[in-house]
Amino acid sequence: MGQAMCICSRSAITIDNKRYYFVQKLDEGGFSYVDLVEGAHDGRFYALKRILCHDREARKEAQNEVEMHRLFNHPNVLGLTGHTFTERAGKTEAWLLLPYISKGTLWSVLEKLRDKGSNMPEKRILHIFRGICEGLKAIHDKGYAHRDLKPTNVLLEEDDKPVLMDLGSMNRARIEVRGSREAMTLQDWAAQRCTISYRAPELFNVESHCIIDERTDIWSLGCVLYSMMILEGPFDLIFQKGDSVALAVQNPVTIPQPCSYSQALQNLLSSIMVPNPQERPDINWVLDQVQNLQGSEGGTVDTNRI
């Protein structure tokens, strides 16, 4: 006879009139915590993201994250099950109830491969990468950009279906910069919200009069592809050594040789990671190339894009 678990003493929260019991802590960031909780009504596990809102601006940002989740109903973008704002010890917290994906992040999978001295087969890379592209296309099609795409922000379900998460840095895709003050404001924002080793070149030194668009995500997408191929980001070691990432991203990425992957996949990576955003492709072109590579083993990448 199995041992019954008493949930009477477990701490509980209520969201949308439903009770959820705390199971364990999953992750912790600068101003947020993620806990594993169990629904009293359905016995299912969920991830509860608690965002500490120290001021009105922080609450506004948390509300923006809620609204970004609500915009999407797509298999490759993490949905929002429920949310609430609560007062605890005189401070406001935003509680975001999210689906729990037990396999973890793409980065955790890459770390395990690296620890085993293995690599990710090209077929698997293309499968995961296509799903990431599909999710990113859904975001771009609605006129938004993710702004913090990286392996730790991609969850993997059991069938290797990728799900984009952490929409807290998402904003409108097209940002018109008019003057040095706006440029510095955007640059400071990017320094805080866009992970340095996956940040697009144009966000390090924002020009006084320019347009920043969703192609910042394409650069980050290239960094994610690189990490799946090499099992580390293209600028991770540069950052860890304390060298200038801002300087390194001004040059085309170098793929370590010999490389076990097809020349077509290497060409795709080189076509994505172009320092000049005006020469960088959009998500539709990238997705077309991935589909071509999946459709024919050893396929080719169209280097004569418009």
Automatic annotation (TrEMBL):
Record SUPFAM superfamilies: Protein kinase-like (PK-like) (SSF56112)
* Listed name of the protein: non-specific serine/threonine protein kinase
Annotated keywords = ATP-binding, Kinase, Nucleotide-binding, Serine/threonine-protein kinase, Transferase
Among the entry's GO cellular component annotations, what is one?
Golgi apparatus
EC number(s) from the headed UniProt entry: 2.7.11.1
Its top-level enzyme class, in one word, is transferase
Q: Where is the Protein kinase domain?
A: 20-293
Residues forming coiled coils? none
Q: Name the source's superkingdom.
A: Eukaryota
Catalytic reaction(s) noted: L-seryl-[protein] + ATP = O-phospho-L-seryl-[protein] + ADP + H(+); L-threonyl-[protein] + ATP = O-phospho-L-threonyl-[protein] + ADP + H(+)
The answer to whether the entry has keyword Transferase is: yes
**GO MF, one annotated term:** protein serine/threonine kinase activity
Q: Which organism is it from?
A: Chanos chanos
Q: One Pfam annotation, family name? A: Pkinase
